[in-house]
Write a structure and sequence with these properties.
The chain is an alpha/beta fold. About 35% of the residues lie in helices and about 15% in strands. The protein is built from eleven helices and nine strands.
Amino acid sequence: MKRILFLALAVLAAAVFAADPAAELRNPAGRPLIAAHRGCWRLAPENSLSAIRAAIERGVDIVEIDVRPTKDGELVLMHDDSVDRTTDGKGKLRTLTAAQVAKLRLKQGQGGPNAPLADEGVPTLREVFELGRGKIVFNLDKAWPVRDKAMKLARECGVTGQILMKGSASPAAVKEWLAAQPAPVLYMPILGRDTVGELDELLRDNPSIPAVELCWTEDGEVYTPEVTGKIRASGRRIWVNTLGENLCGARGDVVSLRNPAEGWGYLLETGGSIFQTDRPAELGEYLGRKGLR
């Protein structure tokens, strides 16, 4: 009887999380979550519809995307302030109209001068929301300057509950903005060496914060038992950036592919529960071997 009840509850929980992609995000005791940095860019152009589709198809929990406006205010996905690296165009995004951007072709992967062109263009934020509605959490990076417009679009597309806005705004600015929203919005502060002192105020004043992103380059800097303990005790998750070489004390993807225990494993043991990664497939396999996927 107990086994039947357990299985029924498991099925119910799975249905809830399927219907609400952000449910696990709001559950601090839940399984570790994978955030694909700019989508699965090893399979498609970064910040593209196909990179986001690949993340959804592979069961990734969160897709991190970069949001910027064109000259005439259309919100599109673009990490850099120029289109040079990732498209066949030239110039600052803010000098190009939406119509001009729509004619550009994306480059494969992370782009660059020698990257081949892909058969797709720069997606609008509306297209991204429509693609991922009900399927994945959208972590909006670089979107704080256009936060109101992004959230208005999210409401129009019916994805407000899937949005995780993030930024480095002051605690007062965050509190004011969250209080002004017509519907609850999830926000994640980004804290580093110079801003970690704002942690207590952010956690105290903003119940809409489900997680805190910590950025550090050396062990003992920011990512300390005192800081991680406060975050976990408050019922929030800890977001770590395992992409690149040095965003989490040199314990990221590069180290983890050689020795997972030294990288991903260490971060798991010390409180990390959301991993922004350039290696979502390999991280998923690692978590699966540990029974966490």
